[in-house]
Design goal:
Layout (H helix, E strand, L loop, with lengths): L16 H11 L3 H21 L3 H10 L8 H10 L6 H5 L5 H11 L6 H8 L10 H12 L9 H8 L3 H14 L8 H18 L1
Helix pairs in contact: 1-2, 2-3, 2-8, 3-7, 3-8, 6-7, 7-8, 8-10, 9-10, 10-11
């Protein structure tokens, strides 16, 4: 996947996937993205401990979720168009949203990830998806709590909801950014996931 873009510097990879991720980011002037990825991995492993999830899976999800940051945003859209992807209107207007799907491909093709739980979580960590897995939700939440723009305004709301369930925490974030007009443009995956989670959370309250 990465070899499609001539400007990307590909360092020599070793058998240590975390070190390889850091080398790729550093070689392409994305050290801050690596710091964010590590913070998300750490947060995701805390969530794993809270909910009995696999620490290794959650850690790798965090390290890999933004691996596509080495690709220019316009090139993400060009790649999607050239490969005949279905492109959501949100992705067309804001190509950066495609980074979750591109990251999944890089994780699979360049880092040899075959675990479907990891690939699924990476692929939907920005928008989530309908009927998300526990690993999908864990990474979605971890990415928001370990925000790369400073302390997030929704931190307390989402953290409190996390003590209830992964579904409640995911929905708390979604509700917050919609009500506070922080969403760039409603992606279909986001809308369908939000509707699904409302039904799940409301049913559990009965």
């Amino acid at each position: 996947m990465l070899s499609n873009f001539s400007y990307i510097i590909l360092p020599d990879f070793t058998g240590d996937i975390k070190a390889n991720i850091q080398s790729l980011f550093n070689a392409n002037n994305k050290a801050k993205t690596f710091e964010h990825s590590k913070a998300v991995a750490d947060m995701n492993m805390k969530i794993a401990g809270q909910y009995g999830l696999d620490l290794h899976i959650c850690g790798l999800c965090g390290y890999l979720h933004d691996i596509s940051a080495v690709i220019a945003r316009d090139d993400m859209l060009s790649y999607a168009v050239e490969n005949n992807w279905h492109i959501d209107e949100a992705e067309r207007r804001f190509p950066v949203i495609l980074h979750q799907r591109i990251s999944k491909l890089i994780a699979e093709q360049d880092f040899g990830i075959t675990d479907r739980q990891i690939l699924s979580a990476v692929e939907c960590h920005t928008t989530l998806r309908i009927n998300p897995s526990v690993y999908d939700m864990a990474l979605f939440i971890a990415d928001k709590l370990a925000w790369d723009l400073g302390h997030p305004p929704f931190y307390g709301i989402v953290k409190s909801a996390l003590d209830i369930s992964l579904e409640s925490a995911s929905l708390a974030y979604m509700d917050y950014i919609v009500k506070n007009k922080m969403i760039l443009y409603p992606h279909k995956w986001f809308e369908k996931s939000m509707e699904f989670l409302h039904n799940v959370v409301n049913t559990n309250r009965i």
